Amino acid sequence: MMRKLMLLSLLGFMVACGGDDTPPAPQGALLVFPEENSECTTGSNVNETLSQVTFRWNASKNTDNYTLSVVNLETNVPQNISTATTSASLSIAKGTPFAWSVTSRNSKSDQVAISETWLFYNAGAQTTYAPFPAQLVSPASGSTVQKDIANEVLLEWSGADVDNDIDTFEIFFSDVNPPTTSLGTTNTTTMEMSASVQSSTVYYWKVITTDLEGNTSDSGIFEFKVF
């Protein structure tokens, strides 16, 4: 009996001192440049339509590789590049809105960490810019949601503009794609609106942003299903 107790105690000690062999997960990088909701004017000219922009971010812990993702918000086409450093250069369209983010990776871990997503305009010949396309927040595209007691679902989005002159957001919503029914407009102090829904139905929605000069941008279409 004494021998069994000693053996159990020894095994317990070995487990306690064995440590955690799980590799540390990477942390998200902090973005530096191009700045959020800004006009990027420092790109090197490539040709009439392209300029080369150098993206920079701060090093993140437990990371040995970064993937820079830059998305053209007019076409939704991404450009990706991997690097072990904290900067990377890409040739991107002039006079065009972009979103960018950085994914941190550790070769010893299956986990990844994604930074915030920042929007910017790559400078072109224009002196005024359309608003950034509204970023649809909730419901997430492809999700299934529960309606509230009033048989409504809350639509939420965010908007930004280099010129800081957004006038209205117009919300289009329907059970056909593309959505053609306008739920109305809001100003920059309100970025949410309730929509009446029915169960077991798929809905489509988008937001058109208009600035004081009449420039517009289209968020693109999200869809969701109601329980």
How would you characterize this protein structure?
The chain is mostly beta strands and 227 residues long. 7% of the residues lie in helices and 48% in strands. It has one helix and 19 strands. A hairpin with a 4-residue loop joins strand 5 and strand 6 (77-83). It comes from Flagellimonas aequoris. Residues 1-18 form the signal peptide. Keywords: Signal.
Give the topology, please.
Layout: H1 2-17, E1 31-33, E2 38-40, E3 44-45, E4 50-57, E5 65-72, E6 77-83, E7 87-93, E8 96-105, E9 112-114, E10 118-122, E11 135-138, E12 143-145, E13 152-158, E14 166-174, E15 182-186, E16 192-196, E17 201-211, E18 216-218, E19 222-226
Parallel strand pairs: 2-10, 12-19
Antiparallel strand pairs: 1-4, 3-4, 4-7, 5-6, 5-8, 8-9, 8-10, 11-13, 13-16, 14-15, 14-17, 17-18, 17-19
In short:
InterPro entries: Ig-like_fold. With 227 residues, the chain is mainly β.
Q: Any idea how many domains?
A: 2
Helix content: under 10%
| Number of E strands | 19
Amino-to-carboxy terminus distance: 60 Å
Keywords: Signal
Protein name: Fibronectin type-III domain-containing protein
Organism: Flagellimonas aequoris
